[in-house]
């Protein structure tokens, strides 16, 4: 049978594209080589890590955060196997959810490794070695990304002593010492998990700051918060070697500016130095599909590659490697394939670091506005001046709104604080509609909520905050 659309990969980009296309009346198949749907995000990424982040937060809160609220004498006991079982159950319910959506939308899920055989043809080899060829009008490459490793350094990731994020969400013992190579999102999220469960965590980061690319003020303050929580953060340090030892592994790094190398040891080392687009074995070169210099599938403004009828979305193409960006691309592409006008607004894609406190951001950073020569205003409001935050002892952090000096249009929003990942969306919606700081400041916000700090920051950008 011929399909309208065959999607290779069932992560957030691929499965969402498939569901949307089926909803719009297309006949769709999804090829997935894993035994379950959902890709990295649902199986070994976003979802399991959030289960562990939440559970470890609860543990740490029960151990340290209750006395001040008048709840004394709690000494929580960690049952790591049970915590990991909670994570596994969370994954299962999510991947089962995708299977349900496929069934509901009459999408054919095909187990096997997909290969592009040219426009209109996808070869599939199942785990059992059975082969078939699917005929289709359009092919969508949604194969995501894989661990990049450390540029120029040979690292043997065994997923027990030297781990990627995959091994770091499945450690069966809390490491006494954990070294994290890379102070990006994965390193800080998973480093936080094990720190809260009792590990001594050292983060080694090449840049002068953690969370490179985030608003500078935000990453600076956030680094101080993590240090206060006990994370040993070494910035400006280039890792040049990671090797196994008898008792664990050792990491060698040297100052980026030059100087003597240092070697430290730990029982577990997490490699979190980025991800690379995953196109291995897809047959793209043979099919004539062009990649860019960074190995990403090249696409035009409508997600089409240089070969007509072959499209690509998500981590395998340009742009931030974020599940929600992939999802939005999946929806837009399905709409385009169904003859509608699909579109993604790349200027308004939120990003969240799910640590405690959370870090969330959307739009431009102050550094980006300066570099572009844009005249802007800044409104800032600390949670220490917010009533609800005080009641919850969640006063760490602030909201920062950046707006155009002339038009007052909001250009960026940045939040460090409890619940930042939820609060960022009111700024996101405002920006999507081209709203101003005054619009946000004049929108009634329920009292007492943490979100009032967003309103106050907007007031600050537009005129003056009331409560400061
Ligand atoms: P990343 O790109 O966020 O961070 C990697 C860090 O490693 C960078 O700060 C880089 O400077 C550093 N680094 C590179 N080479 C180094 C060396 N030799 N020595 C020391 N430091 C070195 O990559 P990460 O954290 O691995 O995440 C991969 C992707 O997954 C990212 O695109 C991220 O956005 C995404 N992701 C998003 C999450 C979220 O939105 N909450 C959660 C997890 C991952």
Which stretches are poorly predicted, pLDDT < 50 over at least 5 residues?
none
The CATH architecture designation of the largest domain is 3-Layer(bba) Sandwich
Main sheet makeup: 7 strands, mixed
Distance between the termini: 66 Å
CATH fold-level topology of the largest domain:
FAD/NAD(P)-binding domain
* 3D shape: globular
Strand content: 25-35%
Q: Tell me how many strands there are.
A: 22
CATH top-level class of the largest domain: Alpha Beta
Task: Estimate nothing, just give the exact number of structural domains.
Answer: 3
How much is the radius of gyration in Å? 23 Å
Derived from helix and strand composition plus strand pairing, the structural class reads alpha/beta
* pLDDT averaged residue by residue: 97
Give every kind of bound small molecule, once each: 1,4-dihydronicotinamide adenine dinucleotide
The helix tally amounts to 14
Q: How much helix, percentage-wise, in residues?
A: 25-40%
Q: What is the CATH H-level superfamily of the largest domain?
A: FAD/NAD(P)-binding domain
């Amino acid at each position: 049978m011929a399909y309208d659309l065959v999607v290779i990969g069932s992560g957030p980009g691929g499965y969402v594209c498939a569901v949307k296309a089926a909803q719009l009346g297309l006949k769709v198949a999804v090829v997935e080589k894993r035994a379950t749907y959902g890709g990295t995000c649902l199986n070994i990424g976003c979802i399991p890590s959030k289960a562990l982040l939440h559970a470890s937060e609860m543990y740490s809160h029960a151990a340290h955060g209750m006395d001040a609220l008048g709840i004394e004498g709690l000494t929580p006991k960690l049952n790591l196997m049970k915590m990991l079982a909670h994570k596994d159950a969370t994954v299962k319910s999510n991947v089962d959810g995708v299977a349900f959506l496929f069934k509901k939308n009459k999408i054919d899920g095909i187990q096997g490794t997909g290969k592009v055989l040219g426009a209109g043809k996808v070869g599939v080899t199942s785990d059992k070695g059975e082969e078939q060829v699917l005929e289709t009008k359009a092919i969508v490459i949604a194969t995501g990304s894989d661990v990049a490793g450390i540029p120029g350094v040979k690292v043997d990731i065994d997923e027990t002593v030297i781990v990627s994020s995959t091994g770091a969400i499945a450690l069966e013992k809390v490491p006494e010492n954990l070294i994290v190579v890379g102070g990006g999102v994965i390193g800080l999220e998973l480093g936080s998990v094990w720190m809260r469960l009792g590990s001594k965590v050292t983060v080694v980061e090449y840049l002068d700051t953690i969370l490179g690319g985030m608003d500078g003020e935000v990453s600076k303050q956030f680094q101080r918060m993590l240090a206060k929580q006990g994370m040993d953060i070494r910035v400006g340090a280039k890792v040049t070697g990671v090797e196994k030892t008898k008792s664990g592994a050792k990491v060698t790094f040297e100052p980026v500016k030059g100087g003597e190398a240092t070697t430290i040891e730990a029982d577990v080392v997490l490699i979190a130095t980025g991800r690379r687009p995953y196109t291995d074995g897809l047959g793209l070169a043979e099919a004539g599909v062009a990649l860019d210099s960074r190995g990403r599938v090249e696409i035009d403004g409508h997600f089409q590659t240089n070969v007509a009828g072959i499209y690509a979305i998500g981590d395998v193409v340009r742009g931030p490697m974020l599940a929600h960006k992939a999802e939005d691309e999946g929806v837009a592409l399905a709409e385009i394939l169904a003859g509608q006008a699909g579109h993604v607004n790349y200027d308004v894609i939120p990003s969240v670091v799910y640590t405690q406190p959370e870090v969330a951001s959307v739009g431009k950073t102050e550094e980006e506005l300066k570099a572009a020569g844009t005249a802007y205003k800044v409104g800032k409001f600390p949670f220490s001046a917010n009533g609800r935050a005080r009641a919850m002892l969640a006063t760490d952090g602030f909201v920062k709104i950046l707006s155009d000096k002339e038009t007052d249009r909001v250009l960026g929003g940045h939040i460090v604080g409890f619940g930042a990942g939820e609060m960022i969306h009111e700024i996101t919606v405002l920006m999507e509609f081209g709203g101003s700081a005054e619009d946000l400041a004049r929108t009634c916000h329920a009292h007492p909520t943490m979100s009032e700090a967003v309103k106050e920051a907007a007031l600050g950008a537009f005129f003056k905050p009331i409560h400061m």
